[in-house]
Design brief:
cytoplasm, six-stranded antiparallel beta sheet, 6 strands, 2 domains, coiled coil, SH3 type barrels, SH3-like_dom_sf, alpha+beta
Length: 288
Amino acid sequence: MSVSLCDLFSQLCEELVPSVSSQWDLAVIAPSNRMRGRFQAIREDHNRRNRYVADLDHYKNKLLRCEAEQHKNNSAKNQEKVKETEAKLQAADVRYQQINKNLTSRLKIAEEHKNAMVDEALLSMVSLLRTIHEQTATRLAALDQLSDNEQSRQAARMSRQTLARLDRETQMEQGVSGKSPEEPVSPSRGRWSDSMLPPPHHPDHNNSNIIAVDMSKLSVQSQPMSPRPLSTIVVRALYDYDATADTELDLRYGDLVTVLKQDRSGWWQGEVDGRIGWFPFNYVQVLP
């Protein structure tokens, strides 16, 4: 099922990403850029109007000074300054009136259509999200059917167990090469193989395959360890294990299991929370 999910996701990306990206640029990015351009123009007009207001005030004050000088000395030079200042004041007033008209018009348009400018991009975004959900409905329905299939669930469970086994093999190989004391190794096999035997469903106390658990044999270190009573041997589950038979024991990561028996096939019998059953030894780590 995980492979099917990956395939569906890859196919979905290949089909939707180019079209959705183009639609996003056209329906969301473009309106946002237009709105940004409108407000940028308003800001620029506002800054220009402030400069024109400053120019207008400057020429008004200058004209007052020139007229005062003319009253004191009505010379041709002072008269020429007054006329020149009046011309500059008139030009500044024309520029101010024009920029003020443009700014007022832009502000009026923005005020009247502010909802449309803001909502345009948001509505386009919602429309694209709805399109994505509609186009993925069929693929999600197919995946949902897979999840309801018992065979698919069984395959997923087996795949999970296989991946856990392969990860454990890798860790054990690294532990053996590095002589790590935290990596338990089977005393009879060195490293467990892919062809692990099924668990003993009807173990016999006199069966030669059933052996007592000796902690000194479970460590990769060569230092001898004194065996402890069987009831005190506790292991911790390194992975989840889903039992496939009534005689097997479900494990969850971190479970503390009391080991009762060990079979040479690679299966151990243990007890956790009042439940007793068999589990693969490679799913656990012996606690010191």
